[in-house]
Amino acid sequence: MEKIKLSKGFTPQLAGMPDTSLIQLPTPHTIGLSALDIPYIRPKLLVKENDPVKTGTPLFCDKRDTAIQYVSPGTGTVKKIWFGERRQLQEVVIALDAPEKFVQFDPVPKKGLGNISKQELILRLKQGGLWQSLRQFPAKDTADSSHRPAMIIVSLNGNDIFSPHPGILLDREKQAFEFGLDLLKHFSDRVIVTARHSSLGRLKPILSHITHTVADTYPAWDPGVVLFHLKKSADENTSWCITADHLVMMATFLITGRYPVERIVTVTKNGDKRPHILTRQGAPIKILSGSFHPESLVTTGRFNGRIADIQGHLGFFENTLNIIDAAGEDELFGFIRPGTDKTTVSRAFLSCLSKNPQKVDATLHGEERACINCSYCENICPNDLMPSFIMKALHSDEIEDALAYGLLDCCRCGLCAYTCPSKIELTQILSHGMDSHYKDKA
Amino acid sequence: MNPLKKIFDNNEHLFTGSGKYKRLASLFDATKTFFFFPSPTTKIMPFIRDHLDLKRYMSFVLISLVPVLLFGIYNTGFQAGIASGEHLGLGSSFLAGAWVVLPIILVSYGVGFFWEILFATIRNHKISEGFLVTGMLFPLTLPPTIPLWQVALGISFGVVIGKEVFGGTGRNILNPALTARAFVFFSYPVSLSGNVWVANQNTVDGISGATALAITGGDGQTITQALSSAGFSLSDLFFGLVPGSIGETSALCCLLGVLFLIVTRIANHRIVLGGIAGLVVTAILFYLIPGGQESWANAGPLYHLCAGGFLFGICFMATDPVSAPGTHAGRWAFGFLIGFLTVTIRVVNPAFVEGTMLAILFMNVFAPLLDHMVIKYKTSKRIPNV
């Protein structure tokens, strides 16, 4: 087991860490399949409202490769299809009003992986709605099945600091996880399995599979950061990654021939210590989040998620919700207070002397100004980028310069915009730069 | 609700939209946000943000200037006392100094803010906090004898030509406070040359005193002997009870200020340490060159460090992040070259007794080039990803 050292990044003292116990929620009345958390997708709907669906029935596919399907995580009828601006598909809502029925595929016996061709595996995973769990760098789009990646990175820890503890999942699903690892060996010669140092205690059963441990500094466990620290040549830039829960889903799907619907999620809130929740994929956010102050923001990752609509459902790629206080109070003389309770990377508040968990809120703490070249973004970027210079290159349309500065190594962890004292939306600017380059290339 | 907040909220309509005073919207906003720190909800990821912002950033520079400012006021009064032949106590020195220094600061802030508001109104943007620092730094680089109209002219040049024509704080090439000082320096050399120092115009028999850097040895006297016979011992120069510009005389106060800035990570320690290293190395090199016993070439690193405005410049002017390089290696080189140029100008060029201002302005111009070279090198070390 090797250790990946991270010299930058950020370890905030956050309050609201979830408890490692597990509770099960009763089956909700509705579930949803969101399209909002699927990067680059151009969805094509395959169902209409009031259509009956089984668990595993394709609801929409990706126009760029119609074989890649997104399937229903439950049995019932299509209750509502939500569209956003310009009729962009947002969510397909299913009412769970029928006994569970599955779209059945042939199960793969546990030892029988070697008897199936790679092409058949790919096809089955695409039809089963799970191929998209494999993501391809640098843009983290759906993996290109004709490509053989230099490595596949399996991250046991999710995008947020308080994403579900991998031990809770793997205690239950050790065999499926091992099956999944065998499966990945069909696609690449090198399979990397990473875990946070603090998670190791509960990962004893699968310890032998972990190839690399990473520090507890955010975002050391992000596959983009792992790739940046492992890669030695340019052809590793197109490696793949997958999260442990998706890998378990893939394996379960192949073993049983049925689309797996269970998900373990966390819901975190300042001051709370909520248990992990076992629920269905696509569970309603309202049920997961419980009650909270109306002036709050619900996100699917405080640094790198999206704002979740309280009427919506948790997406395929999401397994954590953060309820963050957003009641921004204009503090009298706020700019010069000693600040014993302010989270900060800097040394400009007294709170930097304390190690106690601190409350955070979803406000900007200031107003946008011009970049003053302070290097706070460079000092925190886990992938050794200089976000301010990339931002300037992008603003002046020097895309070649931005790429040379390492734009595509950006893992969109959100730390540059988090730390910027001028409150420049660096993550968004870099992310848009990457996206437009990627779309141009495609 | 806070009664002050109520006043702002009740009057906001006058300054926004088609309100009566909509031209003063930027002034209203600046005043309001001075009292009530703005904190709008985040809409874009990351959803949590650091508490440090530019208001606090710039305010910390002002806090770090407090020792320099207080000592400058005291020293101005003290030197004025000496010039009029009396030895003033702490309180009366302070009062006499304040009488001279505060008008200079008020003019600098008043005129500077006028330009800031004018540009903010025309361009319809918010007043940047950067001027809080510029408006304080500029007066501290001036001798107390400066006429107030020159202060007004200088700060106008610094703010308009040094900063606003480029687009405001964050986009300027040169440090605006030093640009202002350079303007006064070259336009009215008599006011700023090192030889005249009379703070109190009303004294009957004011004496003229030279600043330390204007002194040279001669008649077999080495520079250090000449300095101590003129009343500039190393400890005087370190503590700062000597004639000079308002803020620059005390090396101790500058170091206290910059220590605060480095500990809070507002100023970049690379620039300060690089600058001191550059100055020390260059001063030793000149010291080792034979001859020049009576000139500043032979003064050694400690005198070079404590005399003149070097420490004030490297601590507060060179660490201005906007006009300094944005890369770490670039900052080391930037600081080092400022130290090198300061000593070189002091020793080699007889036209200028002090080289700090020119060294910093010169290196400000070269900062983008340093960045360019560092980034080129760093880029060549990356595994390409295109």
Topology:
The complex is a heterodimer of chains A (442) and B (386).
Chain A: E1 2-4, E2 19-24, E3 30-34, E4 43-45, E5 52-53, E6 58-62, E7 65-71, E8 76-83, E9 89-95, H1 118-127, E10 135-136, E11 141-142, E12 152-155, H2 166-172, H3 174-184, E13 191-196, E14 212-214, H4 223-230, E15 240-243, H5 244-256, E16 262-269, E17 275-280, H6 285-289, E18 296-299, E19 320-325, E20 331-332, H7 376-380, H8 387-395, H9 399-404, H10 415-419, H11 426-441
Parallel strand pairs in A: 1-14, 2-17, 12-13, 12-15, 13-14, 16-19
Antiparallel strand pairs in A: 3-9, 4-6, 5-8, 6-7, 8-9, 10-11, 10-15, 16-17, 18-19
Helix pairs in contact in A: 3-5, 8-11
Chain B: H1 3-15, H2 25-35, E1 36-37, H3 54-64, H4 66-83, H5 90-123, H6 130-140, H7 148-160, H8 176-187, H9 189-192, H10 223-229, H11 234-239, H12 251-263, H13 269-288, H14 300-306, H15 310-317, H16 328-348, H17 356-381
Helix pairs in contact in B: 1-2, 3-6, 3-12, 4-5, 4-12, 5-6, 5-7, 6-8, 7-8, 8-17, 12-15, 13-14, 13-16, 16-17
